[in-house]
Amino acid sequence: MGRRFSKRLLVAILASSMAISATFSANASTKYGKNYVSSVTKAVETSAVSILESEGSLESANVEWSPVQGAASYNVYYKAADALDSSYTKIDDELIRQYPSSFRADVLGLAAGNYVLKIVPVVNGVDAINEEATTQALTVKANKREGFAFSPASPMKTSSGGYNDDGTVASNAEILYITASNVNTVTENVVTNAKGTKTTCTGLVNILAGRQKGYDKSPLIIRMIGEIKASDITGLNEHTYIQLKGCYNVTFEGVGKDATAYGWGFLIRDARNLELRNVGIMMFGDDAISLDTDNQNIWVHNNDLFYGAAGHDADQVKGDGSCDIKQDSTFVSVSYNHFHDSGKSSLCGMQDTQNYYVTYHHNWFDHSDSRHPRIRVGSVHVYNNYFDGNAKYGVGVTKGASAFVEANYFRDCKYPMLSSLQGTDIFYDSKGDFSGEDGGMIKAYNNKIEGATRLVYANQDPIQFDAYLASSRNEVVPSTYKTLVGGTTYNNFDTSSVMYKYQPDSPDDVKESVTSYAGRVDGGDLIFNFTDADDTSSVINPDLMAKVKNYSSTLVSDGSKVVK
């Protein structure tokens, strides 16, 4: 079965008062994509910078080091690995954080390539260059900007928010850093009328409300540091949402592996070119992420989605939807997210009456129960996802929806594909227990399926089928195949001009590619490994729930200054 172990390897240099070499050991090993030195497992205060670990990741790089004796703060610099030392650029102080036994810096906004990071302690107000250290060259990879969010046929042509499509910060972007201590006091000048008048808005909620007016479309990057609880934020709506309404060209991202929204979620409405990434969401009040009404070009990726607060309905004991897309939200990509035992992973379409376009790729549905996704009406591409021990079903279609399900790995997913009121849905109960609505059509191609209870293709039964099995990616599904209830056909969106360019992984490679990168950087700071017994269970896992309820950030401080 698929299990993810923490990538963090605790390391330290055998040193206390003696000086440490100012460069990272040339004999360092590489494991799980990180450079590290094998030695003792307890970080100690050293007389020079001692690098514990460093890593190149997706359009970012990070480094951790032991505290240095006498250092009042630290400066961190980066450059391309083959560039001159004169090209070092200092990162923002907010990207440097202190933890109980170490410091960490994350460098964001890097294009793919090789980089070197330099850590310099500040002693008596000046850089102590004799105590600095540099990493080896770290390889940074590009995010996969694929799916309908980046379709040439989409209105905005991109969903990179405040970034360029190569991962670098847009030239005129503003960057806001938010923490539990400043989320209500951070300020930003926002254009609030047609004359271009700028108003100083105070607090994240008010800044976003100012952008909601629609006059300020300049790129904005909001970087969240550490854990922020619902009780820390003034102005959440009645469903404990931060509201990203009417926002254009915005990225909301977590910094590092421990950015956590605890007790609240994200409501996205009337937004264009918006990116949400690298955030852990726990004990949310309604949906964790809700794309609700008239959104275009939205990219939701690399988030960790845990249990929410129990709702009033029987199917909401794990919270409501983890990532719901509804009511005229289109040209959306949901990718590289980690769903941790979600009850209802992703509703796609609610009261929609017209077609829309959504892509799900490289998500880890880790013992989540259902809705991967559950689709009404729209055209949805589902490829290269890892369905890992799903007790109810994988992809479900209703109300004339068309889904292209391609090159996924279904491991112990009870019913990989369902269409309402036909095939497997009514095999055990003629009334069906999936939806009760009219059916939809699934085109399946090149999926790897192991341990399924039942899946019937149209070439096995042309009437009571779950999906049409294509012999090639570009095969057009004949109109002679129709849903049993509703009589709708597959709309063949995947062979039309609206389709984008992409290169799917082999289904044999999906487990590795997904578990290596899904969720936050390094897999986040809450790692939980399910067992085989969890594959068929749809009840709350008490051990995971205990970890979620007892979660608390270990962040000591943000900013470069040392807290003693």
UniProtKB/TrEMBL annotation:
Its main location: secreted. The keyword Lyase applies. It is found in: Secreted. Keywords: Carbohydrate metabolism, Lyase, Polysaccharide degradation, Secreted, Signal. Residues 194-416 form the Pectate lyase domain. The keyword Cytoplasm does not apply. This is Pectate lyase related protein, secreted. It comes from Clostridium acetobutylicum (strain ATCC 824 / DSM 792 / JCM 1419 / IAM 19013 / LMG 5710 / NBRC 13948 / NRRL B-527 / VKM B-1787 / 2291 / W).
